[in-house]
């Protein structure tokens, strides 16, 4: 038996016991040591305001379509696991596994469970000198990497980042690596602004205390060349439109919640002829640089950047709690994210 973290109903997180299934020939069983939550997506789904609450994504049509009452009933009764990435030691391997042996340290996409069982192809070794914190940050770093490439950030550009969760903080680091002359970061949470400054942001703003777009123009004498909106907040997207110069690019990668109540597309969007780019490297979306770049190449590149310490996770996985306290911590951060960036769970 092992314990795992689950959502059992809207806005409720519980620890449940499960019986491990029989190990298949191609599978690896991992004793989890560390795990992390993906705040934007998991909190969005947890809130019940996701488009998945009433619709399902039809992969053939590439559209959200209404779900039947029976489908909604099945979905509401289904428990969903909490957690995005797990790090641990291999304790058992299937008869066909050749890549791993018992005792190897590994990581994978997986839930916050004491035991995680995955196909060998879905598990990766934890490369030294990468830390468990680095490993659980590979997912937000991937989204940040694709967004920065979609923004076509170049040497000398002035960039502004809205939203300083884990993804936004990696965006700040990558924009600096790309040679941007100035990187400006916007977020209402002081802890995140301070970390962005540590990562190289030249200036930060609290959008609840000022008109960030106006203040950026005062500092620069004009708007930024590019904006990356990483919060999934419609007010932030509106702010990004006000923060950039005419004909600028705005890249979005946040998971927007609810209906649009903030955007005024007849204002800066229309008059400054802005370019809006959706950045989404999953859900069967090809990368804009494909076939030169695919997710496998990006993953290898990110591992190398972490190993070279050109990307750092220090400060991003915060808070870190013991597994027994994880459910309470998840709920506390959902209700008040002021003191958190990315929840880490220690086993």
From TrEMBL:
Transmembrane segments: none annotated. The keyword DNA-binding does not apply. CDD domains: 2-desacetyl-2-hydroxyethyl_bacteriochlorophyllide_like. Signal peptide: none annotated. Residues 166-279 form the Alcohol dehydrogenase-like C-terminal domain. Keywords: Metal-binding, Oxidoreductase, Zinc. Its cofactor is Zn(2+). Belongs to the zinc-containing alcohol dehydrogenase family. This is Alcohol dehydrogenase.
């Amino acid at each position: 038996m092992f314990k795992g973290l689950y959502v059992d109903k809207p806005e409720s997180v519980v620890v449940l016991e499960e019986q491990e299934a029989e190990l298949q020939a191609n599978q690896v069983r991992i004793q989890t040591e560390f795990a992390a939550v993906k705040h934007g997506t998991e909190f969005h789904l947890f809130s019940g305001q996701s488009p998945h609450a009433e619709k399902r994504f039809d992969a053939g049509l590439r559209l959200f379509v209404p779900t039947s009452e029976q489908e909604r009933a099945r979905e509401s009764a289904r428990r969903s696991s909490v957690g995005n990435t797990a790090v641990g030691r291999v304790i058992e391997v299937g008869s066909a596994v050749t890549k791993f042996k018992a005792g190897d340290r590994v990581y994978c996409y997986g839930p916050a469970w004491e035991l995680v069982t995955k196909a060998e192809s879905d598990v990766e070794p934890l490369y030294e000198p990468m830390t468990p914190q680095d490993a659980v940050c590979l997912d937000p770093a991937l989204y940040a990497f694709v967004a920065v490439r979609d923004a076509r950030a170049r040497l000398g550009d002035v960039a502004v980042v809205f939203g300083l969760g884990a993804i936004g903080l990696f965006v700040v680091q990558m924009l600096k690596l790309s040679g941007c002359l100035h990187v400006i970061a916007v977020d209402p949470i002081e802890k995140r602004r301070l970390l962005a400054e540590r990562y190289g942001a030249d200036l930060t703003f609290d959008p609840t205390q000022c008109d960030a777009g106006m203040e950026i123009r005062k500092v620069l004498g004009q708007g930024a060349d590019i904006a990356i909106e990483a919060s999934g907040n419609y007010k932030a997207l509106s702010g990004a439109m006000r923060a950039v110069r005419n004909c600028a690019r705005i890249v979005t990668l946040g998971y927007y919640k609810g209906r649009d109540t903030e955007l005024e597309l007849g204002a800066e969007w229309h008059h400054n002829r802005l370019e809006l780019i959706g950045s989404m490297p999953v859900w069967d979306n090809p990368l804009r640089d494909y076939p030169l770049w695919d997710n496998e190449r990006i993953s290898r590149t990110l591992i190398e950047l972490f190993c070279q310490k050109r990307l750092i996770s220090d400060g991003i996985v915060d808070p870190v709690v013991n597994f027994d306290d994880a459910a309470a911590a998840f709920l506390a951060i959902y209700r008040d994210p002021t003191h958190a960036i990315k929840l880490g769970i220690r086993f």
